[in-house]
Write a structure and sequence with these properties.
about 300 residues, 6-stranded mixed beta sheet
């Protein structure tokens, strides 16, 4: 295998990218450790919600890393009508990730120790939004929240909204107070040029089928093995390919963007009469950040 490798190895809290030119495919791999602990530590989430949010943050990092532009942002949001989890949201911007979940504790307790995704969400939908100025601004895809995992729901999104065959695998492990999560995304590069048949109208595509089979063979314990760099996982899966290009992406950090200055800039957009109604007896506006569980007193 002819491989173009980065100078350092990737173990955690940085995404890794790869492409397989002969197969028209690209890969993203992510392993979250300390960054995940910081995000989950902002709230006292029960185990089922910690697991769900950890999965969402990995999936969000995988999808967000597909954005080329430095200023682009990806937001993934799941909402339901009758589930124990009413809202799940995470976003990615230049390697900064954040996430938050709202849930009904009593309804969650009735589901038992290891509730399935359908049990957690009931009837719901998944919305993925890309804010990419260089591609014309904001665009969004919405699909039913179906499947046994968030990864499967995102596979449906890419097929239905972008007509791009995609495979997502995520592994989450909790030991004591520590949660480790990792994932892989494999995707066929779209080839809908003028005069050519789009991939999704074909009955089969052998190059993608090969990549899909190989990527599907990765095991949870491999993704979570902290002693194995992500580059080594690419080698294990695709060492027989003629060429694999591997490159390191951005470091992954907790990305809550809350600050007094930020909220002041947001509040300036409201009319003075509305701002007056928001003030407390001390004349401050108190803003709660759901992502990091902090309150900010915004002076007049």
């Amino acid at each position: 295998m002819n491989t173009t490798l980065p100078q350092t190895e990737t173990f955690a809290d940085r995404w890794l990218g790869a492409s397989i030119p002969d197969r028209d495919a690209r890969l993203r791999l992510v392993r979250l450790d300390e960054t995940l602990s910081e995000i989950l530590g902002a709230h006292d989430y029960p185990p089922a919600i910690r697991h769900l949010l950890a999965e969402a943050l990995v999936v969000g990092s995988l999808i967000g890393s597909l954005i080329d532009e430095d200023e682009g942002q990806m937001t993934m949001q799941a909402q339901t009508k009758a589930g124990a989890v009413s809202l799940l949201v995470c976003d990615y911007r230049q390697g900064a990730v954040r996430g938050y979940a709202e849930f009904d504790g009593e309804a969650l307790a009735r589901l038992g120790a290891n509730p399935s995704l359908p049990a957690l969400f009931g009837e719901g939908y998944l919305a993925i939004t890309f804010d990419v100025p260089e591609r014309g601004g904001r665009y969004q895809g919405i699909v039913p929240l179906e499947g046994e995992t968030l990864g499967e729901a995102c596979e449906t999104y890419f097929v239905q909204s972008e007509q791009v065959p995609t495979l997502v695998r995520v592994a989450v492990q909790t030991e004591g107070d520590r949660t480790l999560a990792a994932g892989l995304l494999a995707q066929h590069l779209p080839d809908g040029e003028v005069g050519r048949e789009r991939l999704h109208v074909r009955l089969a595509h052998p190059e993608w089928e090969h990549v899909q089979v190989m990527a599907s063979s990765i095991r949870h314990e491999e993704l979570l093995d902290e002693t194995v760099p992500l580059e080594a996982l690419v080698w294990r899966l695709f060492h027989e390919e003629a060429e694999v290009r591997v490159f390191q992406g951005a470091p992954l950090t907790r990305g809550c963007r809350c600050s007094i200055e930020h909220y002041q800039s947001v509040l300036r957009r409201f009319p003075e009469a509305e701002r007056a109604e928001m003030r407390n007896d001390a004349g401050d506006i108190v803003v709660d950040c759901a992502f990091c569980s902090r309150s900010f007193n915004i002076p007049d």
